[in-house]
Backbone:
């Protein structure tokens, strides 16, 4: 097998046995990026010099015998992670010249372990979108079908894995932004519990929902990547100080007696028949492995989208106020006076979807509307969270589709925000509840597009969903299918 | 006047912590612009705030000292508005759940005590500052200095309980005294460490419905507070007298003219879109923490004043002056601990010491005469080594040189003469030199006694023991 096609753990074994050097692996990935990037456009910035420098350092570290799982592994990061000295844009014109003076905690943790940084991945602008069509730097395409979207907002992170342009990637998930593109691109995408991974140095979209997680070729890689970035960070007050388990140890292949819930609100009319079929087959697979299924309800599911688009936009409207052209980022040089500078710089700097969400959020927080919108949404959010807490009293894992349909075509929903928002209907509740969820490949549509399966766990239940996902992966071949690019 | 004045004050207290409220940068004043900044206080993308625990402790101190209850679980909120000195586009403050609520301060005006309610005390971060340059080459340019951004503040909001400018000043002075006593603020009004906004309105006497208020800003001294409020009362009274309506607005005080002028009206008021800051977790303060802070509180001015009167037997006036500032009170307390005679100590501290410091424009903390030196000197007076008069000379010398008083007495030969033979000799000479006056005295002009004492003291260069002089002189004159 080609070096660029290996999983993280496979490449690690080769590096460990010194059968391959990190420089060789890195060159293979850089060559692959060169070969397919024109068609996929996963990256905003490729950093070959940085990558080779990192690879040389990793090879020395390997030679000295101080090797971590990540040492020498070529990784790419969503352009939402701050990387010291390397352009970080969040796919926005307003940050198109921003070179951060510091690393995100997640970046720093991967660097400490000796990762090789290949570059920064495309996404929806400020992670606002489900298709990676809103980037100032152009659209990323789905490697399985270049006319289709890769999903979003971490579309670059998923496309780069599917197109074998990186061994592992990190994304962020605010309403499905890791799981949905992973599903559309046939990868494994994990959204950890809120507070599991530090948000420090990750450009904020909606602070109470944002969470960092990996997109990888298989579940084992997902466990390794999570272990590498998880853990308490004194710089993030919302990160939780509980020990990080060895997630790989959870991958026992054993799901006998595992109680899996099927929430009736997620298996509705209008679910794409091929997605439905993939779910039915997945359920049968789990049954054959000895898992038990329980019909159950998450009664407040219907409110999730509305609640999400109030809370996420409210927080975003405030989080994005710092992009004012004063200290960094895009500033219109011809503006006359302060107000003009703010308005023109922000008008030029932000795209239409970002503006839409800033306006929605500003409205939701406005005097006279706060109680009816933001406060009400917070109350409904608590009910949604309680749905999950109650559900996990009687089930270990909840199984749902990741998205109602496989990847749609580029441009298909670009002008219909509401349709676009509805594509996250199965992933959003997990963010609102703050629990964890993983997307694993579970089928291919007749059009040749991947279909994902979501396994939702309780708060800090990553080990359980990784175990279930891994057992499923062992019993199926879906993760071995490759995009033909 | 036919109007009742209603005043409420909002005071910003800059806290004396070493580091900022949400990052580890120094709070030191006067450094190179933007040298005390980091990703957090610069509001860089991805940066997150982490609360400085010391700020919470200081807030609890302030709350306990002003009879507030401490909120067991309070939260931070974002106050959203755009301004170039506000790096994040929002200020982290507290809104619906402030750290302290429902307090009270007692003020005294014209000998009467009056309670003033404190609505709330909340924690927040300060903004940076803008530096405007106007140069030939550059045209008009403004620069942003974010050293002050993220400096911790308390905002203390009073109830609208004050009814005159004097009451407002008394409240402000009282609050100033408390925060400086607590060691949480340096109290410097000129540098903005303690700043005040005043809400002023008028209503007809006897009414129970408040009139429309104006908020006065930029009043950075006690004198300006009085001036601004008095101006505002007159302005509003004039409007009402003419049948007009006061508009709700923010007005800026101009110290040069002593007047207030409109800054922005109600329509231009910001909608701050407060909402809970999702980057910070609730601040949980348990009873144990509150008790620990309470135990560590210093003795506050009211308690000190009472103790000075009741336990040390000082007159009300002395107690008032000595307890007015923590530095003076600390000095006085240190003296009394070394020399437990409160009244002589009080006389010297309030008299010579404060006079010398004032002439010198010096703080008591920098006084060359330490409590140790002052009390050593008082002991010399008590044991008769020097007279009270000579003590003044010794004090001046101590103040100049910081030398030990015994040494000064020795070097300058200032020891009191208590040798009755020597004093007798001087008295005999004085009486012999002026037999007419002696005769007058003996003839009934007893006032002349003072004259003779003066002559004797002069002849002894002030060193004669006054008690002995009195005794011997009286005996001789009666002779």
Residues:
């Amino acid at each position: 097998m080609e070096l660029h096609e290996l999983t993280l753990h496979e490449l690690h074994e080769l590096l460990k046995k010194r059968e391959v050097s990190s420089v060789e692996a890195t060159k293979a990935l850089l060559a692959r990026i060169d070969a397919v990037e024109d068609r996929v456009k996963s990256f905003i910035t490729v950093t070959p010099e940085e990558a080779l420098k990192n690879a040389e350092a990793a090879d020395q570290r390997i030679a000295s015998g101080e090797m971590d799982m990540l040492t020498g592994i070529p990784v790419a990061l969503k352009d939402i992670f701050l990387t010291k000295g390397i352009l970080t844009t969040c796919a926005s014109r307003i940050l198109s010249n921003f070179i951060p003076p510091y690393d995100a905690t997640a970046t720093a943790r991967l660097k400490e372990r000796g990762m090789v940084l290949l570059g920064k991945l495309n996404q929806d602008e400020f992670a606002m979108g489900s298709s990676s069509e809103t980037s100032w730097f152009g659209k990323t395409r789905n490697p399985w079908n270049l006319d289709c979207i890769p999903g979003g907002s971490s579309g670059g992170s998923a496309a780069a894995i599917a197109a074998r342009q990186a061994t592992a990637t990190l994304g962020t998930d605010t309403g499905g932004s890791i799981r949905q593109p992973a599903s559309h691109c046939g990868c494994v995408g994990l959204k950890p519990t809120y507070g599991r991974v530090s948000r420090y140095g990750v450009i904020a979209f909606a602070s109470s929902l944002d969470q960092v997680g990996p997109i990888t070729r298989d579940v084992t890689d997902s466990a390794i990547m999570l272990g590498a970035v998880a853990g308490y960070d004194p710089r993030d007050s919302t990160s939780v100080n509980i020990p990080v388990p060895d997630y790989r140890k959870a991958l026992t292949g054993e799901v006998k007696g595992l109680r899996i819930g099927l929430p009736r609100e997620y298996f509705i009319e209008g679910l794409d028949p091929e997605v439905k079929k993939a779910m039915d087959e997945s359920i049968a697979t789990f049954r054959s492995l000895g898992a038990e299924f329980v019909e159950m309800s998450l009664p407040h599911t219907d409110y999730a989208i509305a609640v999400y688009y109030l809370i996420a936009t409210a927080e975003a409207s405030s989080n994005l106020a710092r992009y004012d052209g004063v200290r960094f980022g895009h500033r219109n040089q011809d503006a006359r006076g302060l107000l003009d500078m703010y308005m023109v710089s922000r008008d030029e700097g932000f795209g239409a979807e970002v503006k839409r969400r800033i306006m929605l959020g500003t409205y939701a927080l406005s005097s006279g509307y706060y109680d009816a919108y933001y406060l009400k949404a917070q109350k409904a959010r608590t009910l949604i969270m309680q749905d999950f807490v109650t559900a996990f009293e009687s089930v270990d894992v909840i199984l749902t589709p990741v998205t109602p349909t496989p990847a749609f075509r580029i441009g298909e929903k670009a002008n219909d925000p509401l349709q676009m928002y509805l594509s996250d209907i199965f992933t959003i509740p997990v963010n609102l509840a703050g629990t964890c969820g993983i997307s694993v490949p579970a089928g291919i549509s007749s059009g040749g597009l991947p279909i994902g399966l979501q396994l939702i766990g309780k708060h800090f239940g990553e080990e359980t969903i990784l175990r279930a996902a891994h057992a499923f992966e062992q019993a199926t071949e879906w993760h071995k299918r490759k995009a033909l690019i | 006047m036919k109007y009742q004045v209603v005043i409420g004050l909002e005071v910003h207290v800059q806290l004396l912590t070493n580091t900022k409220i949400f990052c580890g940068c120094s709070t030191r004043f006067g450094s190179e612009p933007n040298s005390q900044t980091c990703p957090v206080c610069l509001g860089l993308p991805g940066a997150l705030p982490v609360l400085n625990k010391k700020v919470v402790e200081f807030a609890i101190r302030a709350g306990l000292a002003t009879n507030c209850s401490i909120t067991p679980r309070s939260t931070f909120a974002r106050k959203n508005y755009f301004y170039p000195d506000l790096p994040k586009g929002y200020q982290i403050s507290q809104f619906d759940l402030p750290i302290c609520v429902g307090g009270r301060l007692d003020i005294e005006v014209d000998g009467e005590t009056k309670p003033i309610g404190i609505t709330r005390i909340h924690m927040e971060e300060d903004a940076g500052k803008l530096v405007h340059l106007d140069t030939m080459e550059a045209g008009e340019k403004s620069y942003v200095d974010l050293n002050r951004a993220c400096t911790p503040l308390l905002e203390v909001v009073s109830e609208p309980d004050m009814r005159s400018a004097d009451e407002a000043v008394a409240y402000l002075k009282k609050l100033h005294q408390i925060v400086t006593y607590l060691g949480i603020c340096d109290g410097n009004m000129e540098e903005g460490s303690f700043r005040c906004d005043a809400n002023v309105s008028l209503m007809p006497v006897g009414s129970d419905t408040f009139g429309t208020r104006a908020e006065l800003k930029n009043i950075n001294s006690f004198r300006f507070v009085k001036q601004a409020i008095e101006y505002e009362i007159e302005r509003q009274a004039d409007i009402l007298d003419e049948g007009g309506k006061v508009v709700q607005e923010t007005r800026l005080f101009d110290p040069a003219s002593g007047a207030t002028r409109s800054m922005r009206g109600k329509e231009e008021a910001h909608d701050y879109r407060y909402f809970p800051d999702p980057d910070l977790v609730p601040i949980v303060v348990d009873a144990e923490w509150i008790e620990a802070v309470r135990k560590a509180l210093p003795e506050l001015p009211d308690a000190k004043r009472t103790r000075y009167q009741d336990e040390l037997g000082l007159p009300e006036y002395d107690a008032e002056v000595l307890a007015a500032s923590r530095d003076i009170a600390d000095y006085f307390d240190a003296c009394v601990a070394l020399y437990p005679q409160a009244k002589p100590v009080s006389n010297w501290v309030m008299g010579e010491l404060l006079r010398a410091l004032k002439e010198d424009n010096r703080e008591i903390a920098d006084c060359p005469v330490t409590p140790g030196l002052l009390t050593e000197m008082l002991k010399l007076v008590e044991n008769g080594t020097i007279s009270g008069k000579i003590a003044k000379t010794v004090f001046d010398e101590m103040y100049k040189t910081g030398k030990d008083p015994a040494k000064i007495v020795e070097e300058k030969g200032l020891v009191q003469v208590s040798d009755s033979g020597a004093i007798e000799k001087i008295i005999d000479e004085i009486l012999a030199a002026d037999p007419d006056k002696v005769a007058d005295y003996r003839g009934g002009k007893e006032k002349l006694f003072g004259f003779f004492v003066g002559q004797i003291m002069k002849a002894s260069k002030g060193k004669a023991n006054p008690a002995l002089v009195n005794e011997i002189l009286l005996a001789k004159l009666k002779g």
In short: The longest strand of chain B covers residues 112-125. The interface with chain A takes residues 39, 42-51, 78, 80, 82, 84, 87-90, 144, 271, 273-275, 278-281 of chain B (CB under 8 Å). The mean pLDDT of chain B is 93.
